[in-house]
């Protein structure tokens, strides 16, 4: 075995004994706690401790939780067998001061109740009494925390519960424009936790799940119908805060009363925590995408042509792909193949014979897919048809279509009512018409977020949360191509079972952490954590005009992700880039069987294809926060270059023996490789061999 010459720094965790079977979990459950930030603004919690003459009562809930009640509030700690010398995880429930009384919970075998003077009722009980797991659960103990308002109350929001983020790494379940891993660095004011368009500057993105995990082994899982508002580090304090909020000015306008319910779970470490929460809460996919789209890249017209497409441009593009001997699974015909947004016919002025065009693509061995969405602009023929059929979302107080704005229309569009089975069937029949008439193979589904339903509106079958409108859109998308399974989606909420290729929102063509290349790995890790394993990163190089170096480094980032998507063609940058593109596409193809095996494994276990380093080293303090490396399965570590001009980078290898696939050298893990050489043509990746 060779000792790698660059191995200079040993992992700080080799001698660290992490025993979260022994970690202190301190959650101060306060109905009216007095707290403040220390004068030095370090962001640490300070809270009022019980006075000497306080009457202190201690009771247990579930297998690990212990509640202590005093005049200062309610403190929740773990029993002694979970204690550890590390900084306790703390949470504070009910931040506004209000007296409380402890009472017995009726009809609950293992729970406590607290009544506040303002009428709110807090219940804390063992989750097992209410919930059956989706799959077999091991090494996970949970309690449920629930706030309910008083009957016949006009109150519109619950008390706010906050958890201290400091001391551990936290990982959150939402897409975000400045995607980070972990999430401790976010600054998010209290915002509605609904699916939205992070590319358009919204706080939370297209794919969200109310799941928050800590490296301490503590997890929070919010009940999915909760009218949830979330803040992170608001006011400069390191807090994750949750509350329920309804009424005017919220997307939960049709929810009659605020409530907040979530589980707090404890496990040995972050990996066993994720495994337990996944088994308890996250459905597995019903299907895997087509092997062809995993094996070979999708090519798309968007970034290279935007909406300036026509029949000859698309055919020339396809011929160039073949002429440069580049692989392709399908070609997506993106924006502007129709005359009006919402119609479903190729516009004949730019596509005089669309059926022949697609036949020509088929002759080249390239299936064609088209871009679709749920919007119907008022100048389209389809808008009037759907208005008459009642298939569009309606105004709250009439049967008129509810006017919506999207990036191709300002308040001059309607949106499909995905709760109406007849409307959904009409949409599916229309997509099938494209298959039959033009030989379209599948579809790129855009939008679908709850944010596109503004103000007050009504649908045929009301849903408990606007996020379920996204879920229903995904159900529709799945049904559109049940045979080949080549469709792509970009939105998700409780949609794991129906999801196939899940596209990360559009990226900018830059090196930044704001929709740039640095967000691709964090977004991929977050998607996997949320239960969406079939990750489709956006176009190589982003949506703009990348330079040569950015294109190459982005291609390297994408090489070991489940699916590759290209728009800007490599021949724009010269023959050397074409040759490198062939090299990395072939490398991806060499691992396609492994990727597909992991895709099938996700159906059984829910495990992500792309995994954080802590997946194989959950107690390794060096591995926990790394966001510039990832694992494909358990045994392939990838460390792409994400900095402009970089020709070296530091790489961390967790414990074990690793083979450097660029040099063949064997490296003993638990080390940093400092200044690892990364010429432009090199993608560092390592196979774990022991």
UniProtKB/TrEMBL annotation:
InterPro entries: Alpha-glycosidase_related (IPR050985), GH (IPR017853), Glyco_hydro_31_C (IPR048395), Glyco_hydro_31_TIM (IPR000322), Glyco_hydro_b (IPR013780)
GO biological-process terms attached to the record: carbohydrate metabolic process
Domain of life: Eukaryota
GO terms assigned for molecular function: hydrolase activity, hydrolyzing O-glycosyl compounds
Limits of the Glycoside hydrolase family 31 TIM barrel domain: 300-588
Keywords: Glycosidase, Hydrolase, Membrane, Transmembrane, Transmembrane helix
Domain Glycosyl hydrolase family 31 C-terminal: 606-688
ATP-binding as UniProt keyword: no
Family: Belongs to the glycosyl hydrolase 31 family.
Protein name, as recorded: Myogenesis-regulating glycosidase-like isoform X1
């Amino acid at each position: 075995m060779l000792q790698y010459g660059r191995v200079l720094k040993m992992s700080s965790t080799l001698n660290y004994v992490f025993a979260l079977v022994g970690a202190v979990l301190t959650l101060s459950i306060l109905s009216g706690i007095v707290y403040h930030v220390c004068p030095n603004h370090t962001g640490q919690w300070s809270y009022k401790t019980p006075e000497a003459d306080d009457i202190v009562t201690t009771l247990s809930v579930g297998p690990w939780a212990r509640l202590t009640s005093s005049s200062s509030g309610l403190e929740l700690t773990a029993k002694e067998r979970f204690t550890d010398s590390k900084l306790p995880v703390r949470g504070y429930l009910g931040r506004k001061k209000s007296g409380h009384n402890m009472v017995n919970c009726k009809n609950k075998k293992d729970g406590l109740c607290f009544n506040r003077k303002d009428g709110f009722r807090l219940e804390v009980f063992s989750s097992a009494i209410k919930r059956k797991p989706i799959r077999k659960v091991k090494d996970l103990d949970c309690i449920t925390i629930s706030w309910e308002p008083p009957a016949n109350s006009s109150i519109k929001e619950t008390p706010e519960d906050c958890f201290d983020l400091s001391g551990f790494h936290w990982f959150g379940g939402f897409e975000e424009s400045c995607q980070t891993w972990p999430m401790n660095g976010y600054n998010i004011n209290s915002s509605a936790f609904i699916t939205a368009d992070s590319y358009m500057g919204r706080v939370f993105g297209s794919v969200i799940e109310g799941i928050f995990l800590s490296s301490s082994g503590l997890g929070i899982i919010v009940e999915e119908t909760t009218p949830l508002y979330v803040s992170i580090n608001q006011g400069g304090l390191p807090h994750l805060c949750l509350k329920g909020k309804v009424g005017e000015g919220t997307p939960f306008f049709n929810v009659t009363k605020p409530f907040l319910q979530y589980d707090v779970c404890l496990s040995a470490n972050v990996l066993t925590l994720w495994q337990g929460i996944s088994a308890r809460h996250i459905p597995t996919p019903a299907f895997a995408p087509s092997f062809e789209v995993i094996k070979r890249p999708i090519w798309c017209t968007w970034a290279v042509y935007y909406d300036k497409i026509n029949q000859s441009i698309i055919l020339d593009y396809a011929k160039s792909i073949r002429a440069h001997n580049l692989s392709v699974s399908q070609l997506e015909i993106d924006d502007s193949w129709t005359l009006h947004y919402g119609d479903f016919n190729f516009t004949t002025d730019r596509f005089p014979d669309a059926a022949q065009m697609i036949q020509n693509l088929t002759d080249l061995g390239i299936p064609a897919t088209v871009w679709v969405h749920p919007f119907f602009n008022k100048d389209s023929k389809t808008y009037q048809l759907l208005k008459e059929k009642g298939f569009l979302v309606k105004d709250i107080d009439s049967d008129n279509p509810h006017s919506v704005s999207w990036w191709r229309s300002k308040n001059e569009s309607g949106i499909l009512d995905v709760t109406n089975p007849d409307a959904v069937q009409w949409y599916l029949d229309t997509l099938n018409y494209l298959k039959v008439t033009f030989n379209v193979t599948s579809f790129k589904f855009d939008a679908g977020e709850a944010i596109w339903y503004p103000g007050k509106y009504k649908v045929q079958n009301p849903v408990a949360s606007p996020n379920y409108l996204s879920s229903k859109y995904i159900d529709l998308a799945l049904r559109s191509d049940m045979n080949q399974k080549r469709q792509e989606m970009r939105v998700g909420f409780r949609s794991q079972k129906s999801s196939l290729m899940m596209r990360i929102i559009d990226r900018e063509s830059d090196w930044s952490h704001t929709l740039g290349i640095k967000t691709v790995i964090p977004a991929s890790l977050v998607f996997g954590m949320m239960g969406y394993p079939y990750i489709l990163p956006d176009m190589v190089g982003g949506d703009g005009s990348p330079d040569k170096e950015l294109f190459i480094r982005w291609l390297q980032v994408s090489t070991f992700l489940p699916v590759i998507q290209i728009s800007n063609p490599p021949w724009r940058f010269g023959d050397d880039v074409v040759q490198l593109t062939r090299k990395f596409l072939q490398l991806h193809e060499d691992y396609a069987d492994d990727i597909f095996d992991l895709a099938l494994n996700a159906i059984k276990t829910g495990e992500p294809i792309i995994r954080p380093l802590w997946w194989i080293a959950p107690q390794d303090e060096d591995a926990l926060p790394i966001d510039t490396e990832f694992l494909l399965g358990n045994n392939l570590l990838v460390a792409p270059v994400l900095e402009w001009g970089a020709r070296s980078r530091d790489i961390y290898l967790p414990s074990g023996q690793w083979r450097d696939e660029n040099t063949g050298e064997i490296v003993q893990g638990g080390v940093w490789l400092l200044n690892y050489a990364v010429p432009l043509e090199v993608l560092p990746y390592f196979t774990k061999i022991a």
